[in-house]
Amino acid sequence: MESCVTDNYDPKFKIGDGGFSQVFFALHRKTCARVAIKMISKRDHNEDGKQLDRINREISILKSVKHPFISELFDVIETSENTYLIMEYIQNGTLLNSINENGPYNEEEAATIFAQLNLVLQYLQTNCKVAHRDIKAENIMFDAHHNIRLIDFGLSIQEKSIMNTQCGSPSYASPEMILGKPYGYASDIWSCGVLLFIMVVGHLPFEDVNITRLAQKILYQEVEYPTNLSDDLIDLLKKMLTKDPEERITLEGVINHKWVHDKVLYVQDKIKNFQYDDKYIFDKMLNIKSTDVYEYIGHGLVNQSTISYCIARREYMSNTIETMSKEEKKRLMHKQNAYKDIVALPRLLVPEKAKSGAKRKSLPNGTPNINVNTVFIRRKMPSVLVRNI
User: Fold this and answer.
1) Which residues act catalytically here (predicted)?
2) N or C: which end of the chain has fewer CB within 10 A?
3) pTM summary value
4) Is residue 283 part of a domain?
């Protein structure tokens, strides 16, 4: 990695390799905090000559969004070949990994996660006028306390005009997007409906290895709902997976739906009551003068002092906002008790099974995982492999 990056960050190893970027785990040299470095090539995927426009659009959106449940951008480093985005490192994997490893969530757990996602979308749509356009289980990650981070704004766009580009994962694509019709925020609502179905059932609502047949199912096939789901949950899913975007439930309707509304209020209250302790951040984490940093920020300056402050502040938030899932609290307590007698051992020496206290039931033997291999094509319908059926 280039010296302009390694001067301030210490890359350790690659943690992700997507269609348009590579992601590395690294340490910020000044604070020793963990960060993720997203390396985007300026030359690759530039057949249409618009790669730089896409990179700049993603950076612009990431700079404009600040929310507890959105992965934060700390720094941008430009070279002739690459753009490096220094991002918040989220340590507990993706929602997709969680479902594949532990099976579907119970409704209590799912509602907490879904409430957090709803608040993110409310912020994006209301405050930032942004459509994410790539909501899927791979793009929901968990921090140390199992609170979410929405990641990957590479396909996001500010809804200043009518959107009509087919993009994202086809398994989550709305009917209007598949048909090439103009679409708006309602398309993200559809994707969230697909995501919620996956969370509580364990597989996609529409599945086919053939992209044409998959599109036909999304357009014309009705979803089959397991009988073990509550009536309220089925009602919400049906309203989110309504084919006609004009009749589909709005985000406000989702937030106020009785299946999730209490959880939304609970999560909102947790966020509202959270407060940063800047004295602790400066004294214990940074060892730099707060007056200098505040002055830099006041003048809109970005330097290693302000970047260090943002990184430390985010780390403080991530470590301080408690787990919001009751089941996850039980799991963490079980995990802590399991470590009482082995705290002197290196963490990696503890077998994976000893670290698991998940309360969810695993999927039956032979049930295929949801496949994570997604190919993004921006100008036509992308292809995706799903579980074997």
Assistant:
1) 134 (proton acceptor)
2) C
3) 0.82
4) no
